[in-house]
Predict the structure.
Amino acid sequence: MNNDGWRFAHGDLVEFKSQRLTEEYIDELIFVGIVVDRSYRFTTDNRYKILVRGREHWTNANSLTLVSQGRTDHGRNATCDTAVREAK
């Protein structure tokens, strides 16, 4: 957990699972992406916006696993800014 009370910081590399349902099968997908936004929730887990291959996914904190921490410079996360710029 970070000093500001969030479990993940902007620029952290995280992993989460999602399911794709079809008539014939259930496929489990694993995504790896960068935290680009956070949303505080009073009654449930905080939600994070994860950038994966140019697409954004909102997911709750319990479904995320930290892969690598982002690097911060002077209170601003340079890694996140660079990754978002490159993904667009």
Remarks:
- The mean pLDDT is 80.
- The longest strand covers residues 26-39.
- Residues 1 and 32 are 20 Å apart (CA to CA).
- The two ends are 29 Å apart (CA to CA).
